[in-house]
């Protein structure tokens, strides 16, 4: 008989996923986790309830930590691996989806296109200040009538001497009302172009969208552009097609594949702790079979989703990650995270609907995450086309 004995698995890392991470990745992950638990978790329930976000303070703090554009090289950016960026997104969203969205929009949707498609002058002008959190950005692609079909956008830009005039409306824009600069995508005679638009430009306005029941600790806005004039050197020179904005979305979706699991983990751990502490019929509710079944299903979903995200991160670092595989991660991890949140809410009972616990807040947020950056249905069709070779979009 074998003399080998095994310790009880860690209920928060059942498969010992930490053993798959490097020391550097664990150090970075733990630094973000510590910040989130110290500065975000105690306050985000109030921010969510009040529908506000201390964006200036957070931008500076995130800049000091090195989270903004952290996966980009040069120009004051940290230059971490894609996996490290993903782990940071996971920890940020364990705090709140709105917090991860703030960082994701800044780094993946605004800094990334400037870094990828911008001129050297544009990079030097904007990226160092954005990496420090001195300048907040937003990404203008989605329109009131162009959500899942961004190629049907109506926002247009036309040349006027040495300038461009931009007209159109964008909708559901994270950070819009607090942004100092917007990367706006518009139709031109030369194709779809990206424009760097300072938000104090005449004709630009960004009314905030109120009365949200989800992502309340996040600023969401409409962008209105009425004869907004920008010089020619404010156009991103490196792209003139939908490849530009779609590549940005792919970057953001990668972060969501990690982030959603952070929200799921927070819900699972909250339910686990609660079930052990909460007594009914003179015993912890964690001792009941149905509760244990729910806990196990949540734990398995969190562990499986973390492994999936980590696998995608390794592939991205190796230059092998495809957009369809990113769709896989966003599709599966968000839907499973939403189910974990709903299951956790059931374990907490009536307490599950209060902001004293994080579960209902995460559940409401994930309803939005399920839809944005490509709906669950759209990602289904992306993967459907990949496995059949047939386009079901039209």
How is this structure best described in words?
- By secondary structure, this protein is an alpha+beta fold.
- The protein folds into three domains: 17-131, Orthogonal Bundle (Butyryl-Coa Dehydrogenase, subunit A, domain 1), CATH 1.10.540; 137-240, Butyryl-CoA Dehydrogenase, subunit A, domain 2 (Beta Barrel); 244-388, Butyryl-CoA Dehydrogenase, subunit A, domain 3.
- 51% of the residues lie in helices and 14% in strands.
- It is built from ten helices and nine strands.
- Strands 2-3-7-6 form a four-stranded antiparallel sheet, with helices on one face.
- Helix 4 (97-117) runs antiparallel to helix 5 and helix 6 (243-277) packs antiparallel against helix 7.
- The termini are far apart.
- The mean pLDDT is 95.
List the helices and strands and how they pair.
Layout: H1 23-50, H2 55-65, H3 82-95, H4 97-117, H5 120-131, E1 137-140, E2 156-160, E3 163-174, E4 181-188, E5 191-198, E6 204-205, E7 220-231, H6 243-277, E8 279-280, E9 283-284, H7 289-317, H8 323-348, H9 359-369, H10 376-388
Parallel strand pairs: 1-4
Antiparallel strand pairs: 2-3, 3-7, 4-5, 6-7, 8-9
